[in-house]
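S.,

As promised, the flavin-adenine dinucleotide run. Input:
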Amino acid sequence: MRVLIVGAGIAGPTLAFWLRRFGHEPTLIEKAPQLRAGGYLVDFWGSGFEVAERMGIVPQLFDRGYLVREVREVSEHGRRVAHFDPRRVIGNAEGRYVSIVRSDLASAIYESMESVETIFGETVTALGDDGERVHVEFASGAARDFDLVVGADGLHSEVRRLAFGPEAAFERYLGITVAVFDVAGYRPREELVAVSNTRVGMQMLRLSLRDDTTMFVFTFRHDGAVPSDDVPAQQELLRRRLHGLGGEIPAILERMPEARTFYLDRASQIRMPSWSRGRVGLVGDAAACPSLLAGQGSALAMVESYILAAGLGRSDDHRAAFAAYERQLGPLVEAKQDAAIGLGAAFAPRNRLQLILRNTVMGLMSLRPVANLVMGRSLRDPITLPPAPIG
Ligand SMILES: Cc1cc2nc3c(=O)[nH]c(=O)nc-3n(C[C@H](O)[C@H](O)[C@H](O)COP(=O)(O)OP(=O)(O)OC[C@H]3O[C@@H](n4cnc5c(N)ncnc54)[C@H](O)[C@@H]3O)c2cc1C
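Predicted complex:
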C-alpha cells in the first residue's frame, strides 16, 4: 500500500521504517525544512525500548544519550534538600533505559529508515477520502493519491484537524505550561546530575549536556493563553511568570535570549474516541498525546507505530489494522494518560503541602520499595509486541 505519513518526529519515521519492512510503500513529509534540532531530554524505556531494539538503534541511543546519576532537588539557595540515584530505579528496567534529547532520538530513528521517500518543507492542505483512496493536496501545490494517510504530526496535528475536526474537541489542557531552552557555557554545571528547584506552582530543571550545553526546563501552572509560533512573546510570558523569583532563576533568564532552541507549549493530552476515520489514521501525540507529565510519549509513539505497521503488514486490510491497533493500545494509553494527570503535583505543586510531600517522596526514592511503588509499574508495559517480519 502507498501510505503518506505526515510528520518526521518520533512516530512518523518509526512507522515508515516498519511499513517498509512489512512491504509497503511509505512517503514521509515534514513541514520543517530539515529534522528539528535540540529540544528536551526524554526518558526512554518500556515497550518503546523493545521497538528500538528490534530496529537495531539501541547502540546509537546509548552513544547519544545520558545515564543520569543523580536527580537532585535544591532549595532556592542551592542547598540539596532531596536526591536519589535514578540508576537504582532504572535497575528495575534491567538497563533498558536511557535519557536522550528528543531530536537525537528522532534522528537515530530517521537514519535507520531505508528507501523511504522523504520530503521536507511540505505539509498537507486537503484530504479527500473517497473510500478507495485518499486524494491529498499539498502546500506546495502538488496533489497525489495514497491508499492511506497517517498523521504523525504531533500534539497540534493538521491531519487530525482536517480529518476529525478542531483540536479543541480533543485537547485536555492540564493547567501546566512547559518551556525548554538550551544555552552554551552556563555555570554552575554538574555532569549527569538533574538539578531541580521546585516551588509552589513551578519547577526549574537544569541538565548539563555534552558540548558545554545546559538545558533548562520550566514547568509552571498557567491558566491564560499560550502564544504559539512567537518566540519573543513566549519568552516574555516565561519572564513574567518567573518575575520576582530568586536563586538561580534571574541568571538563567538573563541567558535566555541566547537560547539556541526554544520551546514553549501547553502540557496537554489528546483524547479521541477513535484514532482513525476511513483511510486516515493517527499515531503518536497526534492520536493520543499523554503529555510530558507521563514521561512516556516517545516510547508510546514508537509502540503505536510498530503495532499499526504490524497490523497492516499482516492483513493489508486497513479497517482490521486500525481496529486492532486501537483495541490493543487504547486501554494502555488511557491508563498512562490517567496516571499522568496525578503527576502534575510533582512538576508544579499547587500548595506548600504538596511541595513538602513531593520532596519527601523524592528523598525516599533511594529505597527500592518506594521506587517500585512510584515507578515500578510505569517501567513495565502490559503489552506483548507482535513479531517483526523476518529478514
Ligand atoms: C518538555 C517535554 C518533555 C518530554 N519528556 C518526555 C520523556 O521524558 N519521555 C518521553 O517518552 N516523552 C517525553 N515527551 C513527549 C515526547 O516528546 C512526545 O510524546 C513525542 O515526541 C511524540 O512523538 P510524535 O512523533 O508523535 O510527535 P513529535 O515528536 O512532536 O513530532 C511531530 C513532527 O511532525 C511535524 N509536523 C507538525 N505539524 C506538521 C504538519 N502540519 N505537516 C508536516 N509535519 C508536521 C513536526 O515538525 C515534528 O517533526 C516530552 C515532551 C515534552 C514537551
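The first strand starts at residue 2 and ends at 6. The chain has a mean pLDDT of 93.

- D.
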